[in-house]
Amino acid sequence: MAKKIVDNLVAKEMIAPKIPADKLIAQAEAILLEELMVEDRLNNEVRELLKKHETDIERNRMDYRKLFELTKQELVKERNLVL
Fold first, then answer.
1. Average pLDDT for residues 13-39, to the nearest whole number?
2. 60 vs 79: CA distance, rounded Å
3. Strand ranges (DSSP E) for the chain?
4. Which residue among 2, 16, 19, 61 is buried most deeply as judged by most CB within 10 Å?
């Protein structure tokens, strides 16, 4: 995917690489991977937050899935994340 993106950007003359293509592709891969992992890290963080309130959630018979989504949406909004 990264190679295709870099190739298209170069072909359309949107970028003029100043480093070798393989290094540029490697950097693009790293950026793509980082972006793909944002939601995974956020999901893990939400799970940890809700784990701290597990007793209250069970006692009050709250919908875990709904709380998860609401918490996630709030963090996305607070941090201006794009998922």
1. 95
2. 29
3. none
4. 2
